[in-house]
Amino acid sequence: MSDVDATEAPAPQQEFDALIDADSRIEPRDWMPEAYRTTLVRQIAQHAHSEIIGMQPEGEWITRAPSLQRKAILMAKVQDEAGHGLYLYSAAETLGASRDELLHLLHAGKQKYSSIFNYPTLSWADVGAIGWLVDGAAITNQVPLCRCSYGPYARAMVRICKEESFHQRQGFEILHTLTGGTPEQKAMAQDALDRWWYPSLAMFGPPDSDSTHSEQSMRWGIKRFSNDELRQKFVDMTVPQAEVLGLRIPDPALRWDEDSGHYRFSEPDWEEFWAVVKGRGPCNEQRMTHRRRAHDEGAWVREAATAYAAKRAAAASQPTASVA
Ligand SMILES: [Fe+2]
Ligand SMILES: [Fe+2]
């Protein structure tokens, strides 16, 4: 609720509040408070950056995938992540933030991406663990975003979530194959779970007591569940899946709590989380160096595409001319 008396509130603000209260969608043409716009741009940009930076840890395994079929699946998955980045940068564009501008902010270190991608992929089992846990955590985070109050973001999330559930299954299936294999393969799967479990829990962000942006985002219908609620959902969903795989969650305190109907679990190491957020994770530098280089090396593609589009537009305005 606005703290301005309703009779004095400017009409656009009242209309905006009414749409939010009715759980309707805000569209690009609608008036919106500046803080709502900047919150969305920050969140969508961080999300888009995570999608494209997230291509790196798995992309490193495309040449080393253990079979042609695994290679084809992994290539499709990594390409999906590029597509997710594209949908999200497009959603941010409807708020007046161009893709160039957002990439510039990422490259300058002024915008962030999910810290999970600052961990290395040391074995093939890590590709399975990323699909199962990281994409699994992403789904838990993103399904409620399909009902986000901003229309273009909500619609982008519907398609993204369908693809993420394929990613989650392919990761689970990689681990299922490994855990049904030799003792060495099973040990490789366990090692991957040991390393990815806590960073995956940290993907939901700091505990509710330390989360700065949550309350306002909840009121605006951008966020539907708190960080701790989402983390709990993820743990409740994932522990039985680990049992199917025959893998042990690396948390001695993990137990089923009959009274609450939830698993009890240990929190990630928040000091480590903040260190990684601040740039001191194992791969922060590597990821950003690679990203900037890929952007620079792709300059000719953007220039060629722009020149081609200009040529087509010129040809379209002169019906007799043909495009070479
Ligand atoms: Fe994705
Ligand atoms: Fe994904």
Ions, cofactors and other bound molecules: fe (ii) ion
Uncertain residue segments: none
User: Biggest sheet, strands in spatial order?
Assistant: 1-2
Structural class: mainly alpha
Proportion of residues in extended strands: under 5%
Order of helices and strands: HHHHHHHHHHEEHHH
Binned, the helix content reads 55-70%
* Span of the ends, CA to CA: 59 Å
Number of strands: 2
The general outline is globular
Separate helix tally: 13
The radius of gyration computed from the alpha-carbon positions, rounded to a whole number of angstroms, is 22 Å
Main β-sheet description: 2 strands, antiparallel
Average pLDDT works out at 94
Describe the structure.
By secondary structure, the protein is mostly helical. It has 13 helices and two strands. The protein has a two-stranded antiparallel ribbon with strand order 1-2. The structure holds fe (ii) ion (FE2) (2 copies). One fe (ii) ion binds next to α4 and α7.
